[in-house]
Specification:
Layout lengths: L1 H23 L13 H12 L8 E16 L10 E13 L3 E10 L3 E13 L2 E9 L4 H6 L27 E12 L5 E10 L2 E3 L2 E3 L12 E10 L7 E12 L11 E17 L2 E16 L2 E17 L4 E11 L14 E14 L2 E12 L7 E12 L3
Antiparallel strand pairs: 1-2, 1-18, 2-3, 3-4, 4-5, 5-6, 6-7, 7-10, 8-9, 10-11, 11-12, 12-13, 13-14, 14-15, 15-16, 16-17, 17-18
Helix pairs in contact: 1-2
């Protein structure tokens, strides 16, 4: 009886995760990609296939609400960016049996509603896990560490290198396919983690990348692979450093924008590293990624190479207040033919901020920054900005 109850609970939770938000935001931007009922069918099949693994199961729902405001000033072009106020709710549901795993993530905001992650996994050994579905790109440290949980990250903004596709991110953030994760614990308690993934990646449409659509399997997306190696001084330590790389074959919807009219495809290779380390009250988060792009135009190939990086420092003043700052920069990116296709990409940002953890699961954060946006021509759009945010996690 407990086995049947576990299957039913997992299927009902998955159904609600898709059905309810789909009905609420049916008319909002991009929501039509996700049709009701599909997740429940997929999870039920997965649960039935993994019936022995459900004897002892656990499930959890986490809610990550946030409210943030953005106000630019001292702008070189007053029409380049607009102020906004945005409310968001990110819902994460996880199910874990003896071997079977499932995770779903849905994001609502005043500007969008989207299914972010939907994946089922099977643990072959104590340290090897295979996932199938839609997941966040393995070769992006910040993205794979914080996902969409605003409360989890100290800063309000994400590094421009780690931005989502619909926020003019330079690389695909979502992949639909499979991923394999393996942890190796050494005798000295340190650990190496290896992650590899392959699947359908984003395509270039309009002025941004667009992830693969579950319900349009012939929508013209190309393949992509991601790889990451991580070292931790202790198996469960938050201190980590590593290497990451990805290759994406980005198809282009030529008719979606005049700037894409003669462009057929983009092949993108990224190679880089990351570090997340602490020294008492100080913390350093940084990533450096080298890009090699090959743009296939009607009249020939255009090669494009540049480097993007960010460095974020944090200082814990006490248990309640954290001071932080970050610089987003690069080399040879200002004249990049590829980045010129992303006018909303943040080419440079120099930011300072303060976070106040009001209570155990609530925080208030303020950021000020000097920012340069890629823009529509050879000159960047410059502006300064101030942001405020409340974020939390329940339960």
């Amino acid at each position: 009886m407990s086995l049947i109850a576990g299957i039913v609970k997992a299927a009902i939770a998955s159904y609600l995760l898709i059905r309810v938000p789909f009905m609420i935001v049916f008319n909002r931007r991009r929501t039509s990609r996700y049709r009701p009922g599909t997740l429940s069918v997929g999870l039920l099949l997965g649960a039935l296939c993994s019936a022995p693994a459900l004897a002892e199961s656990q499930q959890e729902i986490l809610l990550f609400p946030s409210i943030d405001t953005f106000d630019p000033f001292d702008e070189s072009d007053p029409t380049a960016v607009d102020s906004f106020q945005r409310a968001s709710l990110n819902v994460v549901y996880s199910f874990s049996g003896d071997k079977f795993r499932f995770l779903g993530e849905y994001l609502w905001s005043s500007s969008e509603a989207e299914l972010e992650r939907l994946k089922a996994g099977w643990q072959f050994q104590d340290n090897t896990l295979l996932w199938l579905g839609r997941y966040h790109a393995t070769a992006k440290y910040w993205t794979s560490e914080y996902h969409h949980g605003q409360f989890l990250q100290t800063s309000i903004t994400r590094p421009s290198l780690e931005e989502w596709e619909d926020e003019s991110g330079p690389t695909p953030s979502h992949v639909t396919g499979f991923s394999l994760e393996h942890d190796y614990q050494r005798e000295d308690e340190s650990a190496w983690s290896f992650a590899f993934s392959a699947g359908l990646t984003a395509k270039f449409e309009g002025e941004e990348l667009a992830p693969f659509d579950f319900f349009e399997p012939h929508s013209g997306h190309g393949p992509g692979v991601n790889f990451k190696v991580t070292y931790r001084p202790e198996f469960l330590s938050s201190l980590q450093a590593g290497f990451l790389s990805a290759w994406h074959e980005i198809r282009v919807v030529s008719e979606s924008s005049p700037s894409l009219a003669d462009l057929n495809e983009i092949k993108q290779l990224t190679v880089g590293g990351f570090v997340d380390w602490r020294w008492k009250d100080f913390r350093l988060i940084s990533s450096v990624v080298h890009f090699e792009n090959e743009l296939d135009y009607v009249d020939g190939l255009v090669s494009d190479t540049f480097l993007l990086t960010y460095v974020q420092f944090e200082y814990g003043i006490n248990d309640d207040f954290t001071f932080f700052g970050r610089t987003d920069n690069g080399f040879d990116e200002d004249q990049s033919p590829y980045l010129r296709l992303l006018p909303g990409f943040i080419a440079h940002r120099h930011m300072l901020g303060l976070r106040w953890d009001v209570a155990s699961f609530h925080s208030l954060t303020v950021e000020v920054a000097d920012t340069s946006q890629q823009g529509d021509n050879s000159e960047h759009d410059h502006f300064k900005e101030i942001r405020f945010q409340w974020s939390a996690v329940f339960p």
